[in-house]
Specification:
- The complex is a heterotetramer.
- Chain A has seven helices and no strands.
- By secondary structure, chain A is an all-alpha fold.
- Chain A has a domain of 84 residues.
- Chain B is of the alpha/beta class.
- In chain B, the strands form three sheets. Chain B has a six-stranded parallel β-sheet with strand order 10-9-8-11-12-13, sandwiched between helices. In chain B, strands 4-3-6-7 form a four-stranded antiparallel β-sheet, with no helix packed on it.
- In chain B, helix 2 runs antiparallel to helix 10, helix 3 crosses helix 4 and helix 4 packs parallel to helix 9.
- Chain B has ten helices and 13 strands.
- Chain C is elongated.
- Chain C contains twelve helices and six strands.
- The longest helix of chain C has 29 residues.
- By secondary structure, chain C is α/β, with parallel strands linked by helices.
- By secondary structure, chain D is mainly alpha-helical.
- Helices cover 76% and strands 0% of the residues of chain D.
- In chain D, helix 5 crosses helix 6 and helix 7 packs parallel to helix 8.
- The longest helix of chain D has 37 residues.
- Classes of the chains: A mainly alpha, B alpha/beta, C alpha/beta, D mainly alpha.
């Protein structure tokens, strides 16, 4: 074990906090509670600072300094939001909320129609015979799977008879999709743990070269 | 051209082994970039005849306000390209372009283009198909909303996760334990969050009716504001406005895992009987769902985050999958207008399926590539 | 309660302990592993190999330290490949900590003796534009004017003053964009708001979770290629012969997968053995 | 005023965003940028409400001496200390650069907490697989098989197990095939469904049919 890296104050703190969080797996305990409380405080502070420096200063203050007065409207909406703190006129904050929700609805309506709607239809229009068996079968699977998957999502028709059969096939495709995504993910999750363990055994305890 | 010939002749004559300058690009065409806000000119040219490895290294795009005037470089294009979009020019002014082929031996310029002006347009013609799709899809939805208003009964199939809401609230009441509602980790500028908190409205109303304890920890301040409005409203609608407290909805932290750590702590210490997770979830989905499962809570999840669906499906009792999340609020409200919109969505699905089917048949027979009309730029 | 029933109801802490062991033990072992390179990884490598010297490339680090174990090796290998090919590199991040991660990767990569000899200069051979808030809107803005999206670089220098940035206006000037992504905003946004609108060439490295989501874009040609998770990073190390941490981590990865699969088999065995007995 | 104005704002903003997609002419071409900045600004102001709420909840815990109250102190201290460090002692706008106090706290406190919490997922993935992947019925069996193939196909283990098979039929190839075809199909169906769900929800919001987010009526 490497005493220098072990007693390095930064490593020591990071190491104890790491162990504190992991200890939750055994059971809830005072060290975890401490880590949790500290984590909530620090992270809330972190995002407050980030927002001040990456949103409020560049997107409001700087814009106003460079005389883009249209940003006064954004600032005004922001102030309306703070009126929540004044119970009598807190309803004014709904104007800002309405602005956020309205813009979001508009952006998403268009964005999803294009990317998830039209583009996916476009990508699914595939020739069933490509000249090679492998890709032809692949295309057939994509077309049938997408089609049956959509049948599953029908709300206003009972899943019975042929329609119900198609919906069943759709469910099977969804299950393969979920299984595949789950299996694929295991790797990602293990990587994260490997990273933390690499810190403990490598950077902190100096046991790995 | 003459100059180049002469100089190359001289080089050869001198017996120097040196590359000659490349042939210049030709046929430079400049035109106003279509369907845009102006301030942009597209330039196309025929590549230098010597556009090959080791000779031409790239192109420079030169611009001037008069054909004979001073040309300044406005951009570069790599070897093997024959177009460029210049986003520097001002609207309503004449411009001329030259393309310069670069090489180790020196540059060679094309003839200037004809004069070109740029201006802003009022419609993106290449998005006509988008407009048609928008009108068809929203038309279908609006039609059925109207139709539903006129009192026509609409059949909507059962969605297990939604049916279970009442059961979950009932169980929490019986056990005298809390209901925790988690509206995801994204802000109000995500449609999933908005869909999630409309579901909160129904859950809160049920909770108020059953006199169950509801807790809504959130990770975004705007979401906190919206959740408070909605919960307060639900309690008022259930006839128990006094039972509503602002403290039911509280902010923890904007941080994904800080929020998760706090929720995990909350789960194991308070042991809520029912956990709702409705909205946009990311990696925390499984941490929350597994901890919730461990404490034996009944869990109803819903998200349109495809990557997280498998975890909810594996670890929760019920999961609203994708579109079902957006349908839930309509379903729970039993409001005919909202139910009508679900029927409208089905029309949209039908149109998409029909397009795929027809498209696949036409492409397979080699008649017409229908996918072209679904390309939106 | 017989053996199988006990097994079904095993304390989950036993599972946790075995996972930890499976990950830690391989740190101290050194057995060879075989990695085959998949076509989407090869495609990225080939595309970069074919870029002419001096071409401008962009790397967008859209992740934060928690995803670093998976993605940092990709950023490192990719930067190294760029520099070895004498490409000019523009670094940025759509996540606040992304460009910080890139700086950490730069520090590691620059220790390489070959790159040291090249004496690469900030502002001439590479720049780090830092982070700007706005998610996909940053991409859209860059489509018209990178200078408007990032007026200053990571250090607060005006990017107009950086020699490398002087001829760069928008994606037209950039030969290849590589996006290292852990979620939103990430590859999805780069495809929808970037490639679809401005038609540049995009490759991506994703966490293993995100990869299945964006793999349809490889198929549709909107993405040149894709590196999925630590495996993707290891494949890239294999094909580029620049060996970093990913290869070594794959050992722990293999063991941990084996443990999970072992649990699935045992779980199902126990499930079938007790099927008739449960009430 | 209370009810109508928000509905008008919502409808107007939604509508502007829809038409700006089709109209390139100024000022509509810039509106997305500007509106997005405003949304960020609003959320930026709102976080103040969140922070105040967090402080209030934790101060309450301490003054009422409710269960676990001493921990509330660490939340408050962590919050205040980090904000002060970030705003006052880390060189202003270059606060994130290596070497600042903000960065030190980030690397040695925030980062280990954050990434370890994230890493817990490795354990939960294992426990979830053990519990949930049972071949109970046809659907569950498919899920199980797909997951197992993918898990094996992504690590060298799969190559040891299936290396004897002809190229193209090994576990790695099989997992690629599942990802490319059946998985893509399922994913597409979900994505298209989501598109319709979002279009419909957005439309209901813009038209004021769905207004619960404003506290209903």
């Amino acid at each position: 074990m490497d005493a220098n890296s072990f007693f390095n104050i930064g490593n020591l703190i990071a190491g104890i906090l790491t162990i504190g969080i992991v200890s939750f797996l055994y059971k809830d305990n005072p060290l975890y509670k401490f880590c949790e409380a500290l984590f909530v405080g620090i992270s809330a502070g972190y995002w407050l600072v980030i927002i001040i420096f990456t949103v409020i200063l560049p997107k409001l203050y700087d814009k106003l300094v460079s005389q883009e007065y249209v940003y006064l409207v954004g600032g005004a909406f922001g102030v309306l939001m703070l009126l929540r703190l004044v119970p009598k006129i807190s309803w004014l904050s709904n104007w800002a909320l309405a602005f956020v929700v309205g813009s979001t609805a508009g952006v998403n309506l268009i964005g999803y129609m294009q990317s998830n709607g039209m583009n996916q239809v476009k990508n699914t229009i595939l020739p069933l015979w490509t000249g090679a068996w492998g890709s032809s079968i692949g295309n057939l699977i994509i077309v049938v799977g997408t089609f049956c998957g959509l049948v599953y999502f029908f709300f206003s028709k009972e899943h019975k008879g042929v329609f119900g059969g198609l919906a069943k096939v759709g469910i099977l495709f969804l299950m393969v999709t979920f299984g595949a995504a789950f299996g694929y993910t295991v790797m990602s999750r293990m990587s994260l743990l490997i990273g933390r363990m690499d810190f403990i055994f490598g950077a902190w305890w100096g046991l790995i070269r | 051209m003459k100059k180049i010939l002469v100089s190359s002749f001289l080089f050869l004559a001198a017996g120097l082994i040196q590359a000659q300058v490349p042939a210049p690009p030709t046929d430079v065409k400049a035109y106003d970039t279509p369907d845009d806000a102006g301030n942009s000119i597209s330039i196309e040219w025929v590549m230098s005849a010597d556009d090959k490895e080791g000779v031409v290294t790239g192109y420079e795009i030169l611009r001037s306000e008069s054909p004979q005037g001073e040309y300044t470089r406005v951009g570069d294009a790599p070897r093997g390209t024959n177009s460029y979009i210049d986003s520097g020019p001002q609207n309503g002014k004449d411009y001329f372009y030259k393309i310069r082929a670069l090489s180790a031996a020196g540059p060679s310029d094309s003839e200037p283009s004809a004069a070109v002006q740029t201006k802003a347009q009022w419609f993106k013609r290449n998005r006509v198909n988008g407009l048609v799709a928008l009108l068809l899809l929203s038309g279908g939805i609006l039609y059925f909303i109207r139709k539903a208003r006129s009192g026509k009964e609409i059949y909507i199939r059962k969605i297990a996760g939604i049916e279970a809401v009442e059961e979950a609230v009932g169980r929490a009441t019986e056990m005298g334990r809390k209901i925790v509602f988690i509206p995801g980790i994204q802000d109000m500028d995500n449609m999933q969050t908005i869909a999630g908190i409309t579901i909160l409205g129904h859950v809160a109303r049920k909770a108020a009716e059953y006199e169950a304890k509801l807790e809504v920890p959130v990770s975004r301040a705007l979401v906190m504001v919206a959740c408070r409005e909605i919960t307060k409203q639900a309690f008022t609608a259930a006839g128990r406005p006094d039972a509503y407290k602002d403290d039911m909805v509280y902010y923890i932290t904007d941080d994904q895992f800080g929020y998760t750590a706090a929720l995990d702590g909350l789960f194991v210490r308070e042991k809520p009987a029912a956990i709702f997770m409705q909205g946009a979830f990311f990696a925390e989905s499984l941490i929350l769902a597994e901890t919730g499962n461990y404490i034996g809570a009944i869990q109803i999840a819903g998200t349109a985050q495809p990557s997280q669906l498998p975890f909810f499906v594996a670890a929760c009792d019920y999961t609203l999958i994708g579109e079902e999340l957006f349908a839930a609020s309509a379903y729970l409200s039993k409001d005919v207008k909202l139910l009508g919109s679900l029927k409208g969505q089905d029309v949209g699905k039908f149109l998409m399926m029909a397009a795929i089917l027809v498209g696949v048949i036409l492409t397979s027979l080699g008649v017409y590539d229908l996918s072209r009309i679904f390309t939106v730029r | 309660m017989d053996f199988w029933q006990k097994l079904l109801a095993v304390d989950r802490r036993v599972i946790f302990a075995l996972v930890a062991v499976a990950i830690i033990i391989p740190f101290f072992l050194n057995f060879p592993i075989k990695i085959t390179v998949s076509p989407p990884v090869n495609a990225v490598y080939d595309y970069i190999e074919k870029l002419p010297t001096g071409s401008l490339v962009m790397i967008s680090c859209d992740y934060d330290p928690p995803s670093a174990p998976e993605l940092q090796p990709m950023t490192e290998t990719m930067l190294k490949h760029f520099f070895l090919k004498d490409l000019k590199v523009i670094i940025l991040g759509l996540w606040p900590q992304g460009s910080v991660q890139a700086n950490i990767a730069l520090e590691v990569v620059m220790r390489d003796p070959i790159l040291k000899a090249k004496n690469l200069k900030y502002g001439v051979d590479y720049v780090n534009l830092g982070f700007t808030a706005g998610n996909e809107f940053v991409i859209i803005r860059m489509g018209t004017d990178i200078h408007a999206a990032f007026p200053v670089d990571f250090n607060g220098t005006k990017i107009a003053e950086l020699p490398l940035m002087q001829n760069v206006r928008n994606f037209n000037n950039i030969a290849f964009v590589f996006n290292v992504s852990a979620g939103y905003p990430g590859t999805y946004e780069w495809v929808i708001f970037g490639v679809d609108r401005y038609r540049f060439k995009l490759g991506a490295g994703n966490t293993a979770v995100q990869a299945p989501l964006v793999s349809p874009y490889v198929q549709s040609g909107q993405l040149i290629g894709l590196l999925g998770g630590m495996r993707g990073a290891a494949e890239y190390e294999e094909v580029s012969h620049y060996f970093g941490k990913a290869m070594g981590f794959m050992r722990s990865q293999t063991f941990s997968h084996a443990v999970v699969i072992f649990f699935i088999i045992v779980g199902n065995l126990a499930y079938f053995m007790t099927r008739g007995k449960r009430t | 005023m209370r009810r109508e104005v928000p509905l008008i704002i919502t409808a107007a903003c939604g509508f502007i965003f829809i038409i700006q997609f089709f109209i390139p002419h100024p000022p509509l071409n810039r509106i997305q940028d500007v509106f997005n900045d405003w949304v960020n600004i609003i959320a930026g102001f709102a976080i103040v409400l969140g922070i105040l709420n967090l402080l209030r909840v934790n101060l309450n815990k301490m003054s009422k001496k409710s269960k676990g109250w001493p921990y509330a102190l660490f939340t408050i201290l962590g919050l205040l200390a980090y904000v002060v460090i970030g705003l006052a002692f880390s060189g202003g706008r270059s606060f994130q650069n290596p070497g600042t106090a903000f960065y030190w706290v980030y690397i040695n406190l925030f980062f280990p907490l954050n990434s370890t919490m994230f890493a817990l997922l490795a354990f939960f993935v294992a426990s979830a697989s053990y519990r949930a992947f049972r071949a109970r019925n046809k659907e569950a069996t498919l899920l199980l098989i797909a997951a197992t193939i993918l898990m094996l196909g992504r690590v060298p283990l799969g190559e040891y197990l299936s290396g004897w098979l002809p190229s193209g039929w090994r576990l790695a190839d099989l997992s690629d095939w599942i990802m490319d075809f059946p998985q893509t199909a399922g994913q597409r169906a979900i994505m298209m469904g989501i598109a319709l769900g979002i279009i419909s929800t957005s439309l209901r919001i813009i038209l004021g049919i769905e207004r619960t987010y404003l506290g209903g009526d």
